[in-house]
Every structure is written in C-alpha cells, then in structure tokens.
Amino acid sequence: MSLNRRSLLLAGSSVGLATLIYGCSESNAEAEVTANVVTETAPEGDVALYDGSAIEPINGDAINNPPLADRPMGGVDAELTVVEYVSPTCPHCAAFHMTALPQLKEEYIDTGRIRFIARPFRRNVLDLAIFMVAEASGEQYNEILSAYMESQNVWAASENPRQAIFDIAEQFGFTQERFEEVLTDQELLAAIEATREQALNEFGLQGTPTFYINGDKFEGTPDYAGLSAEIENRL
Q: Region 73-81: what's the mean pLDDT?
C-alpha cells in the first residue's frame, strides 16, 4: 500500500469494505519504549502485569523484534509469549476477540501466566486507520482495539466507515483534530507497514488471525480449546 492511499481516509471515504479487503487468507512510531512497565497486579497474588506501555524486545529473536514496538497484556515475567497477528476487518479475528480471548484473559493473561501480544497486520485502509488510532492512544491500545473488534459489524458496514471509525475513537477522547493528525502520521504509518512486511517476508504469514507461541507458528484450531491446550502443553 502506497502512502497516497491515505487520501481514502482523509476524504471521508464511502468505499465499500469489499473493495478494500485483500483477504483474511503516543502517535510517533519512535515512541519511547520501556521494558516491563507495570502498574497493576493480578487478582491472585503479586504477579506483575503489563500496563499497556510499549516495551523493548523480549529477546533477540526476530518474532520479538517488530518494527512497531509491542504493547502486551499479561505477565511481565511470563515464560510463554503468544503473538496474534490481527486485522480489525477480518471476521475471524473479530470472532476470536469476542469469544476465545475473554477466556484466555481470565485464565492465562490476567493471571500473568502468559504474555499476549495483539500485533497489527494491515489488510486495507480501514485496518490502517484503526491501528493508527489504537497506537496513538498509547496505553489504551488493547482497549481500543477490543472496542473496534466488538463493533466490527457496525463500522465495517457503514456507508461512511471513516466517520464510523472516528465515532469510536471519540469515545476514547479523540477530537476531530487529533484524529486527522493521527491519520497523517507518516512515521507511524511506515512502522505499521514495516510490521506487515516483516510478517509476510520473514514469518510466512498468509492470513489472519495467525498465532505464534514462543516463536513457533501455531497450526491448531485458533479458538480457546486449541490455544489453551497448546499453552498448557508448554507451561
């Protein structure tokens, strides 16, 4: 996707979603990152949890070194890392976020047993707009992404998806001016695009959602039963 396709976002596009999809098969990209930043504890004891801040790479493995710094959920000291490449316009991703993820949060993420990363994979300009808003929100990244996933059938079906995306961003404190500013942040756009290219070229990603568990591509069924079974095998 070239940079000039941002005009679709800035002009209040009413382009139908089907014409944009390639297939399911702070605002600066140089935002400060800090390792293991935490302000919360898990409900069952003193387990350090991530607070939504961007982090430094967990280790030197390529899967843990995306161009756009990760914002994990879960345990700071967790030995198991689950990376999901997610697209907000992917119905399979929305289904996962509305069904399986809440169960994973309750059992493994909020208890600090695993580190969970929802990593951007842009399939179209609507994805791009949502990822830019989520990343620009800083520590609200996961909360905002969740809001878009839960309301996918609303904004994705809108005659004016750009306005519908703003309407949700506004609920998280975005003004129209801030929204416009975020959508023209070329450094952030480039980082999201580079993250996409890394997934395609280095990790062989072919569709969304795709999961990697401690760097290994998960080949099972991407639902709670499949993922929890694999997690239990590795813990």
A: 97
